[in-house]
Every structure is written in structure tokens, then in C-alpha cells.
Amino acid sequence: MKFIWSLITFSSFSPEMWLKTSYCYRIVGLLSNWQQFSFLLQWAKTIGALLISLLLIFSPFVTTGVIGVWLISIAIYWTILIISNNEKLVFSPIYLLVFLYWAISAIAVIFSPVRSVAFSGFIKLTLYLIFFACTSRVLSSSQLSNWLITSILGSGLLVGTYGVRQRLLEVEQLATWNDPAANFSNSIRVYSYLGNPNLLSAYILPSIALSMAAFFVWQRILPKLLALTIFTINISCLYFTGSRSGWIALIILIMMFSLLLFTWFKDELPSFWRQWLLPLTFGTFISLIFILIVSNDILQSRIMSIFIGRADSSNNFRINVWTSVVNIIKDYPFLGIGPGNDAFSKIYPLYMSPKYSALSAYSIFLETAVETGLIGLSIFVWLIFTILNQGIQKIRRFKNNNNSYGIWLIGAIAAIVSLLIQGLFDTVWYRPQVNTLWWFLVALIASQYRLCKKEN
Q1: Which NCBIfam families match (predicted)?
Q2: Cβ atoms of residues 76 and 48 within 8 Å
């Protein structure tokens, strides 16, 4: 069983022989002398970190068009780095599966019933994946990693603070986000700079996970207080979003982070705490949630609305969309209709129930199956398992070396799992503000393969 798992997750992956015979790989370092004699390219990773940090800092405050232009500039810069590379590249198994997903998406475009708009979605996907590749290269430097993580936390602090401020001032609602028939229909849902509560909750989740990690990584008192402040404000902001999927994702995030953190410090604990710390922590956490739900009638109604099926208008809407999406998958089972929300918008009206128009499948797994078929969905699930496996392997290695960088990976895994949980019921993480954070978290794990490979 262990051998099969190792085979599936590429635990013993070694692509050197394939790279030596690859024609595509020959463009890497084609102009290596250029970097050797260029003053700017001597600071290649630092410049890359600057470009990425500016995108991460300003993405919640600018339009998607501006984000697109910035992604194009990062793609151009990454191309320059690749052709002028003068050091040996090391490929993580994550890179291989990302490439496979990109290749399946390209094939899906060819067989798409709406090829022109699917190609537009494929270009967007390619920009995100190049962002991942560039970020992974930059994050191989621990100093630049801290810089970029701090950029995310700083931006998250501003977004979260504004969200809390909206709640205190009882901001005007931009849409009917609550079931009009429910007793919580008039409750305030904050949206900060992102314009949508569910999108805001997805954006806040990585900041919460990384602020928890920062509390243990940052050594001095003031940085620890800053991390605690970011965590508190973002937790409050996410609660005020009223996003049920965001709340569930937050619970999973905290439990996943606690479990991985326990394994990190387990050997340093007395025998009593090794046995009882985790049960006591989870028991206290669940008790606090129960007390909070029981003591708040609106929160109680909001939580119970998850379990009443079609009686809740939001649930009913999603169920109708999911039913229509499944019918699309049945008609395009292998390669889907092609990537991108534009392709979805062209095909979905042919299958939708009356009065239930939608811009996405309201589930990232259904969305993946619609865009790239069951083949693409299989590769996506394969990628997720490989990411988690690689992350846990690297955490063990950092723990054995007593390197606190592993705690950043704990935060990354907790954030990735929480985004996947929220993604079961929503597709807001396909928006560029969240999508870039998703690929940043994946890059944070993939980037460490290079260092561990060097150690081996």
C-alpha cells in the first residue's frame, strides 16, 4: 500500500532523464550568458519578488483588468528568467501534474463546442500557472518568502479592518445575499473592498492561516502581537461575512493547523500533554462553537439553514445549478466544454432551469469537471493529493532539521484544505484575488522541493 501511495504521489520522482532528452527543456538557459553580464538580472529573484508582492498587495483594491495586465508582466519576466537561466532547475512532482492539467485544458479547448471563448479562458489559466511557476522560483529564497508572506498579511490586515469597520457602521448591502423569508434576512454581511461576502471570506482564509503560522515563526514580541492582531481582525471579518461555507472552512482550517502544529511540537511535550493536548484543544474549540451558536438566535438560524435543503433559497439555487451542471457533464464527460467562465456562460443557458442563471458551477470540483471533463477532474484531484503529500514530507524534513520554515508550510496546507472545503459550495476562488493566493500557497510547498533535493 505504501508503495502504491508513493507511486501515485511521485514520492521518488526524478525527471532528470526525461529533461535531458526534452526539446522544450532546451530553451532553458538558451541565453545564459545574458544573465551573467546583466546588472538587473543579478537581482532576478528580488525583482520577481517585487512584482509578485505588488500584485498580492494591490489585488483586493484594483480591477480584474489591472490584475490581468500585471499577470502578463509577470509572465514576460518569467520567460526572460527561463531563457537566461544559468543554474540547474529542479522539478517538483507538483510541476508535472500542473503541466498535465494545463495540457488537458489545451486539448479541451481544441474539442470545445465554443472554442473561441474557451481559448480566452485557457489564456487566463496559463497566466495563473506561469504566476505559480515564477512564484515557486522566488520562494526558494527564505528571505523573499518572508517578504511575500508579510505582503499577504499586510494586505489582509487592511481588507479585514475595512470589513470590520463596515459591520460597525452597518454598511448598505449591495445585493440580496440572505434568504428574504428567513429571520436573518436583515442581518449585515460585510464585503470590504471585494464587493461580495463569499469572495471576501475566501480571500481572508489564507491570511488567517499564515497569521497563525507567523505567531510561531516570528520571534520577537512586537511581531507576535502583530500576527495576533491580524488573526483577530481577520477572524472577526470572516465571521461578519455571514458566509456559511467560509465558516465551515474556517473550522476545518483551525483544526487542520492545530493537528499539524501538534505533530510539530509533540516530541517536546511532557507525556501527559502528548496524550491529552489534542483532545482538550478540540473539545474546548467545539464547545466554544456550540455555546456561540446556542447564545445567538440569528447565528443559530443561519447555521440550521445549511441542513434544510431546498427550503432555503440559497440552497435551492445551488441545487438547481448543480443539477444543470451534472447534465452538461453527462453530455461532455471526457474533456468538458473548455476552460473559463465565458465558455460556461455560453453553454449553461442551454441546460439551466428557468430563473436560475449562473456564472459558474458553484463548486470547484463540478466546475473542473465541466471545463476539462472527468479526465481533468481526475488530474486535479491527483494534484491535490500530491500537494498535500509533498507538503507533509517537507514539514517532517524541516522538523528534523529544527527549521521553523516548516510552520509556514503548516499554514499553507491548512489554507489549501480550507479553500478546498469552501470550494465544495462555491467557485469564488476562481476570481483573480483568490486564485493568485491559491497558487501562491501551492508554490510555497512546491518551492521547497528544490532545497530538499539539494540536501539529498
Answers
A1: 2A73
A2: no
Taking the C-alpha atoms of residue 47 and residue 440, their distance in angstroms, rounded to an integer, is: 17
**What does the block give as the cell for 347?**
453553454
The DSSP result for 317-348, as a single string, is HHHHHHHHHHHHHHHSTTT-S-SSHHHHHHHG
Q: Which three cell numbers stand for residue 254?
A: 483551525
Least confident of 290-299, 388-397, 405-414: 290-299
Closest CA to 217 of 399, 392, 404: 404
Residue 141 to residues 76, 107, 180, 218, 358, Cα–Cα distance (Å): 21, 35, 51, 17, 42
Q: Do 133 and 191 form a contact (C-beta atoms < 8 A)?
A: no
Distance of alpha carbon 432 from alpha carbon 61, whole angstroms: 12
Q: What is the distance between the alpha carbons of residues 81 and 298, in angstroms, rounded to a whole number?
A: 53
- Evaluate if residue 456 carries a pLDDT over 50: no
Q: What is the DSSP string of 422-445?
A: HHTT--GGGSHHHHHHHHHHHHHH
Amino acid identity for residue 190 in this structure? V
Distance of CA 348 to CAs 103, 206, 334, Å?
24, 31, 17
Q: Which residue has 509577470 as its cell numbers?
A: 74
pLDDT digits (tens, 9 = 90+) for 229-264: 999 999 999 999 988 899 999 999 999 999 999 999
Question: In the structure, how many helices (H) and strands (E) does the chain have?
Answer: 19, 0
Q: What is the DSSP string of 112-152?
A: -TTHHHHHHHHHHHHHHHHHHHHHHHHTTSHHHHHHHHHHH
Q: Cβ contacts of residue 250 below 8 Å, gap of 6+?
A: 201, 205, 208, 235, 238, 418
What angle (nearest 5°) sits at the alpha carbon of residue 265, between those of residues 271 and 145?
A: 180
What are the DSSP calls for 275-321, one per residue? HHHHHHHHHHHHHHHHHHHHH-HHHHHHHHGGGSGGGSHHHHHHHHH
Q: How many other C-beta atoms are found inside a 10 Å radius of the C-beta of residue 65?
A: 9
Global pTM reads 0.91
Quick one: cell of 231?
Answer: 488573526
Q: Are 407 and 444 in contact (CB under 8 A)?
A: no
CB 183 within 8 A of CB 85: no
Burial, 439: exposed, middle or buried (Cβ in 10 Å; 0-12, 13-18, 19+)? Answer: buried
Q: What is the pLDDT of residue 5?
A: 59
For residues 98 and 113, what is the distance between their CA atoms, to the nearest angstrom?
A: 24
Cα 32 versus chain centre, distance: 33
Mean pLDDT for the stretch of residues 94-101: 92
